[in-house]
Amino acid sequence: MTRLSEQYVKDLLAGINDPNSDTDLISLGWLRGIGLDGQRISVDLRAGYPIDGIRESLVAEIASRLESDPEIEKATISLDWKVVPHVVQGELKPQDQIKNIIAVASGKGGVGKSATAVNLALALRADGARVGVLDADIYGPSMPRMLGVSGNPQTEGNRIIPQRAHGLQVMSIGFMVEEDTPMIWRGPMVTSALQQLLTETNWQGLDYLVVDLPPGTGDIQLTLAQKVPVAGSVIVTTPQDIALLDARKAVQMFRKVNMSVLGIVENMSTHICSQCGHEESIFGSGGGNRMALEYEVPLLGQLPLAMKIRSDLDQGMPTVVSDPDSELTLRYREIARKTAARLATTPRNLALNMPQINILNT
Question: Domain 6-81 belongs to what architecture?
Answer without folding.
Answer: 2-Layer Sandwich (3.30)
